[in-house]
Amino acid sequence: MTLKRAAAITGISEMKPTRSPDGKSTLGIWTNVARHAVLDAGLSIADIDGLLIGQPITEQAQMWPSILGEYLGVHPRYGNVVDLGGASAAGMVWRAAAAIESGLANAVLCVTGEASDVETFYAPRARRSAQQLPYREFEVPYGPMGVNSGYALIAARHMYEYGTTSRQLAKIAVDQRTNACANPDALFYGKPLTVDDVLASPLVVDPLHLLEIVRPCTGGAALVVVSPQLARESSNPPVWLLGAGESSRGMMLSQMDSITTSPITEAAPKAFAMAGVSHKDIDLISVYDCYTITVLVTLEDAGFCAKGTGGPFVEEHDFTWQGDMPLNTHGGQLSFGQPGLAGGMSHVTEAVRQLQHRAGERQVADCEVAFVNGNGGIMSEQVSLVLGIE
Predict the structure, then answer these.
(1) CA 85 to CA 108: how far, in whole Å?
(2) Pick from 260, 259, 262, 257: which is nearest to 247 by CA?
(3) Domains (ranges, CATH) in the chain?
(4) In this structure, are residues 328 and 287 in contact, taking their beta carbons and an 8 Å threshold?
(5) DSSP state at residue 56
(6) Torsions phi, psi of 82, nearest 5?
(7) pLDDT tens-digit readout, 105-164
(8) Is it the case that residue 292 has pLDDT exceeding 60?
(9) What angle, 0 to 180 degrees and rounded to 10, lies between the N-to-C axes of helices 166-180 and 292-301?
């Protein structure tokens, strides 16, 4: 089965990230970005017959599609919650295309977002369940083992195995900050960065510095995936799903065969094969970047460079929107911001924006094909997409 050109993205919407909720609720954010995405697609809310929701990180509830559907006045024939962490947004796109291809829906609204206060995001939370999960028993007693320390272990191991340096990782953050300075909606717009700035920032978990770590914030994003017929009727250029691949592994680093190699090695080849394109055909790379090491490992595992050569590869290429290899042209989550799962969706919306040539100052010239990757957990869940225009 192939999903090539089974569906297209025609509308997008994104809330400018803020450091605190300012009275906004997650449901309110979802409603706002959903409405604007539908309008951007040139549709009415009555046209929406599919609804995919990204599970909020800081809120617990069931029946989210029903809750949001009721709030929007949508009665979907197809609804679901996609729970792949940061890979959720990319996972929504191919699931929406599959639903359309199978006849379950014609227009699927995909929504993410979260009301999150950066001042309290890392505060201890009450235990949600008395259940003793495996990582609590086998990893937590030996150290913090949260996401910061997990990605720090990956970075440290990559440095040990391949000689990767902190300066090489820092350049990723610097190039993305340059992109953010061309994006007025970015959290760090107008705040340029140097490699020395990154290395001088506090060491959070060795070897990762503060400016190599994503900034949680409040925001939201949505997109609409439609049938080929509706795509042809859209006022916006359709952005077609050309290829998709997905793969995951367990959550615990202690159980992984290698912490420097991710399931992207399986997801990306599937996406490229389905799309019938090669790496040289890619005009934009838009990949999850919760940490600088995430980008480097993704570039290797997606096949843009050989395993272990990510450090030199980063030094040799310009990842800014004007460079030879544009990457995360909105600033990435490192400099645009990470409003929950909407941070992951920002990579999809930016790819659509670039492919539709609506990126303004940061528009990549002759952008026709984009590679998108979503990452969940600690390099655990991966979804790769190839998107393109006619």
Answers:
(1) 20
(2) 262
(3) 8-117+218-241 (3.40.47.10), 140-215+243-388 (3.40.47.10)
(4) yes
(5) P
(6) -100, 115
(7) 999 999 999 888 766 665 555 443 434 556 777 787 887 667 999 999 999 999 999 999
(8) yes
(9) 100
